[in-house]
Amino acid sequence: MYKNALRGGIRTAKQAWRLKNEIGKLNLELAKANTDFEQHLCEETAHLNELLSSKQFVKVQKQFYRDYSSVSLGAPLKSSDAPLLGDLCNQYRAILAYTSADVVPGQKQGQPQHQQIRGAHKQQETRMQQQEEVGGMAQKLEFKRLPTNVVPKHYELLLQPDLEAFTFKGKTIVQVQVKKPTKQIVLNALDIIIEEAQLEFECTKMKADRIVYSTDAETATLEFEKVIPAETAGVLQMSFTGELNDKMKGFYRSKYFSASGEERYAGVTQFEATDARRCFPCWDEPAIKATFDITLVVPKNRVALSNMPVKKEDDLEGGLRRVRFDRTPIMSTYLVACVVGEYDFVEGKSEDGIIVRVFTPVGKREQGQFALDVATKVLPFYKDYFNIAYPLPKMDLIAISDFSAGAMENWGLVTYRETFVLVDPKNTSLMRKQSIALTVGHEIAHQWFGNLVTMEWWTHLWLNEGYASFVEFLCVHHLFPEYDIWTQFVTDMYTRALELDSLKNSHPIEVPVGHPSEIDEIFDEISYNKGASVIRMLHDYIGEDDFRKGMNIYLTRHQYGNTSTEDLWTALQEASSKNVAEVMSSWTQYKGFPVVSVESEQKGKTQRILRLSQRKFTADGSQADEDCLWVVPISVSTSRDPTAIAKTFLLDKPSMEVVLDGVTDSDWIKINPGTVGYYRTRYSKEMLEQLMPAVKNMELPPLDRLGLIDDMFAMVQAGHASTADVLALVDGYRNETNYTVWTAITNSLTNLHVLISHTDLMEDFHRFGRNLYEPVAQRLGWEPREGENHLDTLLRSLVLTRLVSFRSNDVIEVARQRFRSHINGTQPLPADLRTTCYKAALQDGNEQIFEEMLALYRTTDLHEEQDRISRALGCSTDAKLLRRVIDFAMSGEVRAQDSVFVIVAVAINPKGRDMAWEFFKSSNKQLLERYQGGFLLTRLIKYLIENYASEEKAKEVEEFFRVTQIPGCERTVSQAVETIRLNAAWLERDREKLSTYLKSV
Ligand SMILES: [Zn+2]
């Protein structure tokens, strides 16, 4: 039986790990194997070896790390506990011994030990469970959502954190509705211990006899002696305890310093996507909504916040205070929030009477003012835009010192990383202010789109994030028209999405996801940036009025409920009478996007025939494997009126012809004006030649100049055009004045810089760069002009920083002098120019400069300034100093949330590239311990490896990640390795011509 059972049952690594975990929890010490048994074990080991090299294994291993860490309630993972084959086999031995007791003689001897450990009941039940799993595992281990036979209607939730012992206790009283008779209630719980569970219904009180946890499913099953009848309303009471962990998820601790420099901790929650279950037992799925009465018991002198305003406060014994909050509306668990700590705040009121507060570290109240101004204006803006009032009476924003993401939209209590909310007027750059405005706009948009109407399941996450990432621009455009933010959308969101989405290892916007480990992986640039870009395209296709009307239909129809992507299409379709679902489905369901090739032919004096065709764009220029056909909304402009749309139509076939009237043979034609359509355009040579003068004389609007150059560079990378030709085109942008166009050029040249760093052409490339950027730098100068426009300020930092890296002696000289005056206090640098000057000083600086920078870091307590300094350190060219940067990043002086970015700065410096990679190879276990997977580690891995450009390196990286499993970074590694190969091919293809070109200019 055991042989068959294993053959039939353990086919996947997932199954193997699942068994391993179950067994591990029971602490089995059963393995007294006989020879016969050993032989079978050998066979299974061979099978396991196969599994270990499979892709699936990598995925499952991520889960293992999660499980492991939850077993120890937050203790860091020790490298010696990493899953090794031998370890796995030992566990296997135990499984075999245990589950095959009836057929393998002599195996029962271990049983009494078990009973001593865990008690007979539990042991037997686990055994049954395992036997069942071994037999029918394939079905059993599939991820399942919670059963719907019992659902919560209302939670009373009490939490009492201990900010010194880093634990918390809690109690919840849940009103539940029983829909089908059952003896079990299954809900989510992870890393918490439910001490008691009791159900009361129809004058009956029943205690749960058993509480069975599944770490893999992240559930607790409460088992009752008697059946709970259907159609019953019950009250489920549970008390529980947990650890205030340091993982920045669930209910966690966040370190800060008091005014006197004493180290203290706040208790903070971060639940999205699936971590409410780490704080209290609950039905932790977005569609299982309920109302909440939250109560916090906290030390008297601490601020206590939650989603709703305070209803009542009482003093308790022992220096404690009980704070009760008003009842929330019906909402999802991932939006529940609590914060307990020491904060100051500023308060305001929106014009429609909502109280808005921004909580800051103690003594930094004034740094909340900018976010407060933005938030008080944003609330009425959305109220008006959606035509639905903000549903809560208050809106709190709070800066959290340890925070892994940028911000989190908890309903009524939005939490932020400090750099995403605090503005210090003297030390905050304009760029940072702008991203704070966008972030506040984003999170507040979620209060409607996400919180009031929530995705039914995480597969539709893109809907939340794509939409909020679109609408944040709409809102900032309204509040700060001078930012010209829509133009920046294209370089910040759109082109980044296209770049990633052209890789074979991209994924569609809508991804079926189940288990939490899969959900974490989709909070990526595809969900956010591509999501926002296709919504922008749709907005443009149906027009602002209908889009707005559709939003109102959607939000009104589904308020306090849940939706899927189709529900939004239905509403927008109703509002616009356009076939939204048909147009949009190809964009959400296929990965990648098309390249639209276009040729034109003049017919008579005033007609031009356009011949368009579409095919999937691939970064390496190869024929795509899949046969995808998009429904592409196309618009066209001409030199007759560069800012007007001359024609729009849908390209829904592989190719088509369109006739443009009123166009003479000297007119240029631009496809995708405004760079709104999510596709690349490839013009015929003649069409491109006609367009170029319009770039030079800036007759073509900025977004079109930008889109054109970005498309051209994509064609170069794909091998459809030569780098030298495109650089000659870039030269045509020398008179360019627009910040965003310069950003696009800079981004493209940064990619090229990576290639050049693998050649001996660096000097020539620097000269090319200086020639290109110097005219605009001269125009702008170092000093901001009176009343200068916002974008010129941004452009100045961009251009001067580029010239520092292109080794412009003049710029470097001035930058160093300014740095000196800043350091000795004679003239502090404006925030916008600090990065430029820091880099100029550090780039060829000695140890003394390095020490000065560290001293500067240590004297500031503004997170933004610490970021700026620590990220500039990596531009040093001295290997000894770069080594120190890495050590510094890993020291206690840099918060775990920030170290990654400091190391990235070293990695993207060609001089530090190998060092950073070697460091990672030797310290990956330590890094994994620190981040336990998660997006910070993924980010690091991406930048460490994607800048290589040889097949050998691609192989080395692949081999490293094959042997060293880092859970949760599978896709990133494949994407980065793909990029290495693209770089290698690009370099090989263009090296010679590029050399000739660069040496000639
Ligand atoms: Zn968001």
UniProtKB/TrEMBL annotation:
Q: Does the keyword Metal-binding apply?
A: yes
Active site positions, chain numbering: 443
Gene3D superfamilies on file: 1.25.50.20, 2.60.40.1910, Neutral Protease Domain 2 (1.10.390.10), tricorn interacting facor f3 domain (2.60.40.1730)
| EC number per UniProt | 3.4.11.14
The record's cofactor note says: Binds 1 zinc ion per subunit.
Query: What molecular function terms (GO) are annotated for this protein?
Result: alanyl aminopeptidase activity; metalloaminopeptidase activity; peptide binding; zinc ion binding
Cofactor section: Zn(2+)
What is its membrane topology? Lipid-anchor; GPI-anchor
Q: Which residues form the Peptidase M1 membrane alanine aminopeptidase domain?
A: 370-587
Question: What region holds the ERAP1-like C-terminal domain?
Answer: 668-981
What does the UniProt entry say about where the protein is found? Answer: Cell membrane; Cytoplasm
Primary location: membrane
Broadest EC class assigned to this enzyme: hydrolase
Instruction: Please list the reactions this protein catalyses.
Output: Release of an N-terminal amino acid, preferentially alanine, from a wide range of peptides, amides and arylamides
* Gene Ontology terms: biological process: peptide catabolic process; proteolysis
What is the protein's name according to its record?
Answer: Puromycin-sensitive aminopeptidase
Q: Which species does the entry assign this protein to?
A: Drosophila persimilis (Fruit fly)
